[in-house]
Amino acid sequence: MTTPTIEPERAWALLLELRRRVRAASEPPGNSAAFLDIAADGSWIGQTPLTESSAELFDLYLPMARACRERPLTVAHLGQSLDGRIATESGASCYVTGPENLTHLHRMRALCDAIVVGASTVEHDDPQLTTRRVPGPNPVRVVLDPRRRLASGCGVFQDRAAPTLLICSEELADAPAPGAAEIIGVAVQDGGLNLAEIVRRLHQRGLFGIFIEGGGLTVSAFLEQGLLHQLQVTVAPLIIGSGRPGIRLPPIQDLSQGLRPRHRRYALGEDVMFDCRLRD
């Protein structure tokens, strides 16, 4: 009998099942899944015929599905225009990229353990940060608000759709928590929160698959401090001409000082995503 080819819907279900087994520690780290032979470096060979789309799903999402104590993973994502803008001057960003990129974000949410955003993203977009476009669990929501400037009525603090952590400076951690959120105080370093300490605290809670979804300042800070394993940048065929830039890093004198990471390109509808590998 011919073995059925794995279609994308089935591939996604297998990725969710692998994630569940890894998080439950029933899948020994480093071992292959039942449907894939996975090498130590994360490369894989399918044991069952795959469609091209299914193979692309495994390429893109397998690292986050397998995140665990032995394989922690921090991935950031930005969606930007051709001229490198993620929003208008007023902060409007819905939507720079197309629906396929939004589906990608929801897939990353479903596979990660914690989704991290900065206070500006919550202030301007009031996002739910839940998984709605694809099957899968909601991640723990982590909001970085050093100065506690966000209103307690923001949806992420009130809807109880998923556990929510508000991370602020230690000096403000004793103030009442907004809604159902839990407050974590972290030391301030160089004018901002100690991001390495935040990652450590999340790992302590068993949250080893971390997805930084925005905004530009937050992603840039994680990138500058060398805390990202991957950076995903989706570029839309849109020219805004002004507005808020995506990545912002300290000035360099020569292009040789710039980052040229290993990367793969994925077509997301009319958009193109660059999945950059920054560290193993």
Keywords:
single chain; 280 residues; alpha/beta; Dihydrofolate Reductase, subunit A; nine-stranded mixed sheet; 26% helix; 25% strand
Task: Explain how this protein is built.
The protein has 280 residues and is α/β, with parallel strands linked by helices. It folds into two domains: 1-67, no CATH class; 72-249 and 262-277, Dihydrofolate Reductase, subunit A (3-Layer(aba) Sandwich), CATH 3.40.430. The protein contains seven helices and 15 strands. The protein has helices spanning 8-23, 52-65, 99-111, 119-125, 155-158, 195-204, 216-224; strands at 36-38, 44-46, 73-80, 85-87, 114-118, 140-144, 164-169, 182-186, 188-189, 192-193, 209-214, 230-235, 244-245, 262-268, 271-277. A nine-stranded mixed sheet has the order 8-7-6-5-11-3-12-15-14, with helices on both faces. Helix 1 (8-23) packs parallel to helix 2. The radius of gyration is 19 Å and the shape is globular. The relative contact order is 0.16. The model has no long low-confidence stretch (mean pLDDT 93).
